[in-house]
Fold:
Amino acid sequence: MLEERISTSNIKSGSVVVAGWVREIRDFGKLKFIILADREGEVQITAKANEVESEILEIIDKLGKEDVIVVKGNVRENEKAPGGKEIVPEKIEILNTSERVLPLEIRSKAKAELSTRLDNRFLDLRKKEVLAIFKIRSQVANAIREFFHENGFIEIHTPKIVASATESGANVFPILYFEKEAFLAQSPQFYKQACVVGGFEKVFEIAPAFRAEKHHTIRHLTEYTSVDAEIGFIKSHEDVMKVVENLIKYIFEKVLERCKKELNMLNVELSVPKLPIKRITMREAYKLLEKEGYSVEYGDELNTEAEKLFGKIVKEKFGTDFVFLTEFPWKVRPFYTYRKENEPEWTKSFDLIYKGIEIVTGGQREHRYEILLSQCKEKGVTPEKIEFYLKMFKYGAPPHGGFGLGLDRLIMLMLNLSNVREATLFPRDPERLEP
Ligand code: AMO
Structure:
């Protein structure tokens, strides 16, 4: 029967075969209903004593929620049935059974605790709202690939087992690698730069990144999906921001075009951001925050609270959810960052803030060997430990820059989810290694 199977979204008329999970059973003795669910939706199976073989009623008596069945039957109009159609079964086959007590209700209106949901993620994924999140995430990834390919970027795959930290030494995961010291990659930073120096000019990667983040927040994971890009022959970080904003616009346009049903299901109203996205320097941001009575030490980063307040100020003042925070202080940026020519305490770098949370970091990179070496020492990074990286700047490195975008955070904020874990299939945090 399975080879004739059609999706519940394709049910029109005549004889059909559908397969899926028994989501609900309603039993009125001589009249029994099954709500059968598959990826695309649900359909009602209606079995009346005088309309179906008695064997069918016996099978339905044995069924429980989340059993997997295949049903052959005839489609009939019924305005009371969900979707206006029902199937009168001729044959029901049980493909597999489920335990009778479920650790998680799939159709329940009451929201289970996130930890219970994640412990039973395979069941949680059967909820249509959860599926909608991952259908949208799939389309976002698709749009990202399309955008980069259309704009001349080459997709790369860089190693995730690495010999050194790239961002800061503090949040890197050490691993056992025979007799050597090794780590899980925090970012493809060095490798994406290596590809540009290697002559690829424009590259991108969508891959996991690992951070030993001990803190428990709604926006930190220990493994997240990073969308990285690196571009050669730029004039400044401005060229990089242009790519970021065009990418964001493209993603929003495609999601609006391709995910109407899913956005409706999640009650999400999206609008494509207007370009150019507002740029505000860190120095201006300190002043804006100061005016609201929140003072940040000159040269410091914005903490979570300040970032949130900054997002709010920008929304009220400029009516936008997106803002580029530019010219970060040298003090808080990694050694590879390019400093402003006449103001070396400030850098040619930026973050993109969306609804008060950072989703992108980027900037121009220092490509002049001697300066890079001295910046490396200034930041306390041992040059010998990153020799392979430093070496490539001796053989003709063009000016370049790039960015890293946290895919999980983008999805969380786009869909108004309350926690980044909801945007991630099987999230990893300090407590969670399974499922
Ligand atoms: P950064 O460390 O700021 O920059 O990371 C870039 C983006 O990655 C996301 N992100 C995270 N998402 C979830 N959980 C985490 N623990 C986490 N850490 C980071 C954020 C962040 O904006 N090499 C640079 C990028 C570059 O300059 O090209 C980097 O990794 O959305």
